[in-house]
Design brief:
By secondary structure, the chain is an alpha+beta fold. Helix content is about 25%, strand content about 45%. Strands 4-3-2-1-5 form a five-stranded antiparallel beta sheet.
Length: about 90
Amino acid sequence: MSRLYEEFNYKEKPAIDEQQYEQFNQMMQQAMARTQMMGITYYVNGDFKYLRGMIRDVHVYKGEVKILDEEGKIHFLFLKDIVDITYANDEIL
């Protein structure tokens, strides 16, 4: 039953083009400079996850981004897994 449920709920990862990646990069750089909260949607194991936090570092050579969430926990996401980035709010911390 669990395998059937997983197969039924599997979602395809959308294709992200070079222009979108460049936009994501610009937004992440601005967010780091302004210590602004971001909402990041990423793809993992056939599903989408959402993380809200502040971008602390972007390691282009490693292909990952370091994010500090609202609870003070550090997350590392692969840049290739990010499918959307938004400003979480207009408040600058």
